[in-house]
Design brief:
Number of helices: 14
CATH class of the largest domain: Alpha Beta
Main location: periplasm
Oligomer: single chain
CATH topology of the largest domain: D-Maltodextrin-Binding Protein, domain 2
Protein name: Sulfate-binding protein
Pfam family, one: SBP_bac_11
Number of strands: 16
GO molecular function: molecular carrier activity
Low-confidence stretches: 1-90
InterPro entries: Thiosulph/SO4-bd (IPR005669)
């Protein structure tokens, strides 16, 4: 979702929120990695119910700009696990959630008299999902890929009906895949078919490590999937054959394109592109194209049921309140201000983003994320076939003395 997020490790995009009761103030930490907030009643009395800490850990779903927009994830991490979190910069997802948590905490205190504090930390969506499965005490996760939440479901920590218990099947914001070009678009890149031209060099993150790159892969597949699997596979192979390098995440991919000047076109989340352009000094912003056939990039949020069962009713209430707040017009406007496509109709109607004629979803065209994983991303599936074939072709070129 998101355009520029900064994080280390694998991408997407998404945040995980933890609510933990804590009576002592937590140690001060860098705002770029954690922001821990102690909760106290406005009356100043600190009871077990009125004093609590909410920690928010984000996994940016985007692999293109450093933090998710390849997905974000909010999750609780104990201080002893702080090394797992990345802190390489300010990204769109982080910027949105900083504002949302600040506003929510203020309103929650006004309504309940309880002061909430949030700790924000950043890391890759897949990394955060694995960490929660391995025992990190996350109470809420907001990740770059629904597939990453499904992994936590399979671990038994999230109920299988998680999408039915919140609005919009758990999706709090959307985006699409965009193509960033050089100034003036000298190669006249307008649609997916231009990516396989011999004079066009492509930059995309690695689908093995970045959530954003999996969305890129799916968007490319969708361009030809109506013509059958063989046609789609051949097209995606031809695009990857034009890829110069595959950085590990969204931020590195953006750096390669914007700072190092490599490639003619960069594939990234639209929201990541918007944020990156906003951060460019002088005339550093670059034009981008949104193909008219595109995949709907969805950023989901879920409560980690098993972890919250161990918490007090007050903690569960605060966590549920925060999750539901994400669909309010105020929160949706924050997502919109950061380049996401809001899911609230009123907020969405006011956005001035490129219209997309045909937007498809994984569920509609592929059946489910489980099907997508089996077909494309598991070991020895289509992605491996494509990357192996590209590797063989590059090796043959080097042996023949051919330079790109």
């Amino acid at each position: 979702m998101e355009a520029g997020l900064l994080h280390q490790g694998t991408p997407l995009v998404s945040p995980s929120i933890y609510c933990r009761k804590k009576l002592r103030p937590s140690p001060r930490v860098s705002s770029s990695s954690h922001l821990r907030v102690k909760a106290a009643s406005s009356s100043g009395r600190g009871s077990a119910d009125s004093n609590r800490t909410i920690q928010v850990q984000r996994l940016l779903k985007m692999s293109a700009v450093a933090a998710v927009a390849s997905g974000t994830a909010i999750s609780w991490w104990r201080t002893s696990h702080a090394s797992h979190a990345a802190s390489s910069g300010l990204g769109v997802t982080r910027r949105a959630y900083q504002k949302i948590t600040e506003t929510f905490a203020r309103e929650y205190e006004e309504q309940t008299g309880q002061r909430l504090k949030f700790r924000l930390s950043f890391g890759g969506s897949g990394t955060q999902a694995r960490a929660v499965c391995d025992g990190l005490p996350g109470d809420i996760v907001a990740l770059a890929l629904p597939l990453d939440i499904q992994k936590i479901v399979e671990s038994g920590l999230i109920s299988a009906d998680w999408q039915k218990r919140v609005p919009n099947n758990g999706v709090v914001a959307e985006s699409v895949v965009a193509m960033v070009t050089r100034k003036g678009n000298p190669k006249k890149i307008k649609d997916w078919d231009d990516l396989i031209r011999p004079d066009v060099n492509v930059i995309t993150a690695n689908p093995k490590t970045a959530g954003v790159a999996r969305w890129n892969f799916l968007a490319l597949w969708g361009h030809r999937m109506q013509q059958g699997e063989d046609a789609a596979k051949d097209f995606v192979y031809k695009v990857f054959d034009r890829v110069l390098v595959q950085p590990r995440d969204a931020r590195e991919a953006s750096d390669v394109f914007y700072k190092q000047g490599m490639g003619d076109v960069l594939l990234n989340y639209e929201n990541e592109v918007i944020l990156t352009n906003e951060s460019q000094e002088g005339e550093g912003a670059l034009p981008y194209v949104v193909p008219q056939t595109n995949v709907r990039v969805e950023t989901p949020v879920a409560v980690v049921d098993e972890n919250l069962r161990r918490q007090s009713a007050a903690t569960r209430e605060a966590a549920d309140a925060f999750v539901n707040y994400l669909w309010t017009p105020a929160a949706q406007q924050e997502f919109a201000d950061c380049g996401f496509r809001a899911v609230d109709p009123g907020v969405r109607a006011k956005q001035k983003l490129p219209k997309v004629k045909n937007v498809w979803t994984v569920e509609d065209k592929l059946g489910s994320w489980a099907n997508a994983q089996q077909m494309f991303f598991k070991q020895d599936a289509i992605l491996d076939w494509i990357q192996n074939k590209v590797g063989e072709a590059r090796l043959a070129e080097r042996r023949a003395g051919i330079k790109r």
